[in-house]
Amino acid sequence: MKIVHLVTSTAGGAAQAAIRSHEALLGANHNSSILSVERRVEGHSNEIVKKLPTSSISRILSSVTTVIQQKAIQKSSNPVSPISLDLLNWDDPEIQTADVLHLHAFYNLVSVRNFLSKYPHKKKVVTLHDERFFTGGCHYQMDCEQLENGCRRCPQVRILYHPLVARQRKSVLRLVNGNLDVTFVCPSLWMMQRAMNAFPEFPDSHFVQIYNPIPTNSTVTNQSATRERGINFGFVSQNLDNPIKNLGLLLDAFKEVSAVYTGQHSLTLIGESNRDYSMGGLEVSQRVVNSTLELQKAFRVMDVLIVPSTHDNLPNVMGEALMSGVGLIGSNVGGIPEIAKLFNQHLFESGNKAELVQAMQSFKLADRTHIKDQADHVFGYQTIAARLSEVYSSKLH
Hints:
Layout: E1 2-9, H1 13-27, E2 31-38, H2 45-48, E3 50-51, H3 56-73, H4 93-96, E4 100-103, H5 112-117, E5 123-127, H6 162-177, E6 182-186, H7 189-198, E7 207-209, H8 223-226, E8 232-239, H9 247-260, E9 266-272, E10 284-287, H10 292-299, E11 304-307, H11 316-323, E12 327-331, H12 336-342, E13 346-348, H13 353-362, H14 368-379, H15 381-393
Parallel strand pairs: 1-2, 1-4, 2-3, 4-5, 5-6, 6-7, 8-9, 8-11, 9-10, 11-12, 12-13
């Protein structure tokens, strides 16, 4: 059985999950390959991802489409992208010879119509890293209930484009309900429930919850749990300025915590930004990491990862932190609570600074090796490869 993973780019959380799924399957001796139309060199991904050729005209159209959707269609900072160009070459030998096509991210890679309709004899698998596949284009519905009404008045797009979003939603619903060879892999139970609600007539057996795989960190020690010092809080995001990740709340909370425990605690920020987030005399460091290995090294001196997102699925960084023996304090949104509860970690109400301050003040150092061993059982390559193999080989009709 030959599995081909499809992902728009090698950058971002969906791409990272795709690459790691491919690595996990290779480790379990499966015939797996991964294709992308845009390759950004990150670690060793340049060596294992096949970049599909695209014309200069296609790349220009892709850029123009992105700008139009950001500037003209969406009316807030929340991403909405109802239009997706089909830049994939469906005649590529890798695709023609595949038994399974596993789609991880499709923006300006494929149209949903072509992915579901072409090669009807092939098994189709879609990992839902956000909600865009089953909405009219918004990546996160937030508190919106328009999905139940066909997304006819989407509050995240300008009025002129309401019909476009509604048509996209209706088209996807029709295509999915008419295709019994597709399975939805959901990285969280929260996402699986959202997807099942979005496709109420589609069989429940076509939805499966599988966490994104995380590589094992073999250098975890318990040194952090034995030394006497303050807590090193951490925050990790590809873009520190992303409003959904809500770094501002953490900075305000850290300021309050530091006012009580003067000079004892520190905060490490990892991610890209043009801003300087230093806070006067408080111990705040800011850096960028360029590989999984660099992130694992950063986790060695971090005691607890703060995930204060306003909306999220289940960020890969939560599994990465746990795989390094790092504790968690997370907001009660999306798939964050299920992992916090599974690992007996801390939750606070999203946006509630007082609860976040309380969680930070009461945090206790834990056995890092125990956390890492539990994470390996939940997110490890061997576990995820076995789960994916079951999906690929299952008969749905």
